[in-house]
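User: My instructor asked us to take a sequence, write out its structure as tokens, and then describe one feature of it. I'm not sure where to start. Here is the sequence I was given:
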Amino acid sequence: MASIRIRMTNKRRKALVGTAFISPWIIGFFIFALRPMIYSLYLSFQKVKVTPLGIKTNYVGWDNYKYAFVSDTTFVEKVLHYLREMALNVPIIVTFSLIIALLINQKIKMRGIFRTIFFLPVIITSGPVINELLSQGVTNIPNIESYSMFEMVKQSLTPAVANPIMYLFKQIIMVLWFSGVQILIFLAGLQKVDHSLYEAARIDGASPWEAFWKLTLPMLMPLVLVNFIYTIVYISTFALNEIIVMIKDNMFNTTTGFGYATAIAWIYFVLIAIVLAIWSLLLRTRKS
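Assistant: Let's start with the prediction itself. The structure tokens for your sequence are:
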């Protein structure tokens, strides 16, 4: 009984420590974010007009949501396009981050410099900077469409599959640009792995490849889930995301306005929540 009591006490203590770390975010959310979210949900059921005298609303029920799916074909098209991009980009970003973390976790010279180089894009990828880089073509590989690989992809695959793959190759630098934080998370996990486990595996005759699949990857699975969630949220809220841009454009559109903009924002929010739930379920099942 005493051991159970101590274990419960330790569990409660860890829970309190975790709550203390996230409490600033929780407090900030309730003070600054909860009320605007509720108000935006209210506006999504309204026809909103901004006048010199203030905001005037007229209740329209589900009309804004119906318009998004039935009348506004651009929104549905952009959502489907974004989901295809996410299905390709997110696994590649996480896989690339894991590979780079494994490489720079080795005992090599100038390891700190390499870590800085891979994290540097995170510091400079603000909206205006990325926008300028995109306009100058820095994030694309020059003349990549002239490579024979593109023709092979076009001829051997259907357009529904080939177009996302071609987009991925065109934007490969942009995709890899989002890997800095994920690399650091994987590095933190790798540095906490007990090296005696690798020594025991080596004594038992396990190859480095077997040690990765049987030791490294299972121990990093919680961080894989964290990185998947972080990558999806980061890409989904990126300032130049085409759906985010569409929401901003509709805010000041005289035809649609704030009401429709908040409606598609909530549709987008629910969609991303569903995607996160699916990925979490898949990765937790894989972990178990």
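For the description part of your assignment, you could build on this observation: Residues 189 and 220 are 6 Å apart (CA to CA). Try explaining in your own words what that tells you about the chain.
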